[in-house]
Automatic annotation (TrEMBL):
It comes from the Eukaryota. Coiled coil: none annotated. Residues 1-61 form the MADS-box domain. The lineage of its organism: Eukaryota, Viridiplantae, Streptophyta, Embryophyta, Tracheophyta. One of its GO terms (biological process) is positive regulation of transcription by RNA polymerase II. PROSITE patterns: MADS_BOX_1, MADS_BOX_2. This is MADS box transcription factor. One of its GO terms (molecular function) is protein dimerization activity. It is found in: Nucleus. It comes from Lithospermum erythrorhizon (Purple gromwell).
């Protein structure tokens, strides 16, 4: 059975939106980790929530420190 195309639009219900954000954030962090392990790649991921909270992942410490801190942003 093939799924049809889904329309990407903002979720109006705040509770459903937060649940979806949490699930997708977890999935994205897992994929970033898998990419770093499987491909021996340096990966850095920064996610900002709608409330301004920061979630981050780095495959190694120096990725975030040298790449982002040296530019004066984060």
């Amino acid at each position: 059975m093939v799924r049809g195309k889904t329309q990407v639009k903002r979720i109006e219900n705040a509770t459903r939106r937060q649940v979806t954000f949490s699930k997708r954030r977890s999935g994205l962090l897992k994929k970033a980790f898998e990419l770093s392990v499987l491909c021996d790649a340096e990966v850095a991921l920064i996610i900002f929530s709608s409330k301004g909270k920061i979630y981050e992942f780095a495959s190694s410490r120096y990725v975030l420190y040298y790449e982002f801190k040296s530019k004066g942003t984060l």
